Amino acid sequence: MTAANHPQWAQSDTDLTGRSIAVIGGAGGVGEGVVQSLLHFGATVVAAGRSSANLEGLATRSGAPTLNTEVLDALAPDLDETATRLAAKYGVFDGVIVAVASWGDQGQKPVLSLSDDEWDQLLAANITAVFRLYRAFIPHVAPGGVLIQLNGMSAEIPFPGNAGVALSAAAGKSLTRTLAAELQDAGPRVYEVILGVIRTRSRQLAGIDDPGWIPARDIGVHVAELIGGNSPLAGIDLHYVVDPVQGPRSRP
Ligand SMILES: NC(=O)c1ccc[n+]([C@@H]2O[C@H](COP(=O)([O-])OP(=O)(O)OC[C@H]3O[C@@H](n4cnc5c(N)ncnc54)[C@H](OP(=O)(O)O)[C@@H]3O)[C@@H](O)[C@H]2O)c1
To answer: In whole angstroms, what is the distance from residue 92 CA to residue 90 CA?
Structure first.
């Protein structure tokens, strides 16, 4: 990313030099764009996820010496110990970004067709995982630091055929905003950022693309401005990025 292809809404003074930021789901579609933008603005980034192959691919494509990768499963019993180990290795985090998602193995199904196991797995992967990441990582975020959940519009609107993902998204919005209220004035800033359709590398590789969608790196620009504190929305806990031209807004 160069200054020339920053979105027109971007601030001109974003600088994350010296900041340490963990991106959980950093090798995912949205996560990769966020990682690349944070690196561009000078941060040291720890990208984490379950697949070492995906993390290695990210590191190879990036080539940045300030990118570190760590295998981590949000549902593993030892998640708290892993977060403590990473904080000891990289120092207290100035930002933790949660960009995890899982569609499960069941494909699209009407909600009443979900089996008990499918229901349990979708909720575990999409909301229990988020709760466990917050509980594990918040103690390792600097008091002036930031925790951000990247979420989707299924937090707001019906999503036929994908009830488990959608209700987890709605629950994630509630969870994140409740944490933001609980930590107000007494801990890291907490943000819920709800996204429209994103142009990701994985979608483009699958031949699915639309120039009207939002580049994943633009989400990273907003995340960088929240961590840097120069976003006009830094004082508001709930943001929407649904239009590539308008950029971040406090309303959908
Ligand atoms: N793509 C879009 O257009 C779009 C639109 C709106 C909102 N969003 C939101 O953006 C966020 C990320 O979505 P995405 O499209 O980037 O999804 P994605 O491409 O499937 O990436 C999800 C990432 O989460 C990681 N992950 C999943 N479960 C994990 C676990 N238990 N522990 C650790 N890492 C885990 C995955 O890595 P491993 O599999 O290696 O663990 C992967 O890197 C989601 O909240 C989604 O709702 C995306």
So the answer is: 7
Amino acid at residue number 36: Q
- Least Cα distance to 191 among 230, 148, 241 occurs for 148
Question: What is the rounded CA–CA span in Å between residue 233 and residue 226?
Answer: 8
The whole-number pLDDT of residue 187 equals 86
Using a 6 Å CB cutoff, which residues line ligand 1?
24-25, 27-31, 49-51, 54, 72-75, 99-102, 125, 129, 150-152, 169, 195, 197-198, 200, 202
> Kind of pairing, strands 141-152 and 238-241?
unpaired
16-241 carries CATH number 3.30.360.10: no
* pLDDT value for 51: 98
CA-to-CA separations, 197 to 28, 90, 109, 224, 250, in angstroms, rounded: 14, 32, 21, 20, 17
The residue among 60, 33, 59 whose CA lies nearest residue 46 is 59
Ligand 1 midpoint to CA 77 (Å) = 20
Helices 29-40 and 216-228 pack at an angle, to 10 degrees, of 50
Asked whether the beta carbons of 252 and 240 are under 8 A apart, the reply is: yes
Measured distance CA(77)–CA(54) in Å, rounded:
22
Nearest to 26 by CA among 34, 38, 18, 15: 34
- The structural domains of the chain, with segments of one domain joined by +, span 16-241
- Mark the ranges of the chain whose per-residue pLDDT is less than 50: none
CB 51 within 8 A of CB 28: no
Rounded distance between C-alpha atoms, residue 24 and residue 246, angstroms: 27
